[in-house]
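Q: What would this chain look like folded?
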Amino acid sequence: MANAHSERIPAASQEHHWPTAVAALLAGGAFFSLWFWLLPRWLGFHAEAAGAAQWRWIAALPSVLGFAVALRCVWDFGWTGRGTPAPVAPPKRLVVVGAYRYVRNPMYLGFATGWIGLWVVFGQANLFAIGAVIAVAVGVHIFVVAYEEPTLSRKFGADYELYCRNVNRWRPRLRGWDCAGLGTRTAAMSRHP
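A: My prediction, written as structure tokens:
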């Protein structure tokens, strides 16, 4: 069976990927926009460049990388999974390409890294905000364990179970999983443009 490194999508079928890729980017863009609009004011973000605060800008690098990973995951949902991150239009194929070869929830981890980096750059830590962030992280974990994983298991069966046995939920692997042995409803079979 071919793996993610050995087979390319035929040019004719690439045309069918564009609508879902664009829909995924629109859904992801709406999500990004909502959070960028709501959270900065709520967390008290403001720029300071004097004194020790000038070193805060170093956190911009992991922030940008985290958001880039999340955005790439949104693309992967549309292009290879033929769906969106939104539960109302989920991927039709199990996505195990890109960052998903290293960790099962790279989109959440990318968003978290991006927001933590922004918080370091712009934010001011206070007990309420820290508690709220911890509550959101616990809520995301519960959502993943109680809804996403059972839903994916029902939808993709043995392929998802094999994926779960080889790729951790939150702790990334050092080397990407090669996806060997997955079935045809899995997006590991195609490469990106």
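Residues 11-189 form a domain with the Four Helix Bundle (Hemerythrin (Met), subunit A) fold (CATH 1.20.120.1630).
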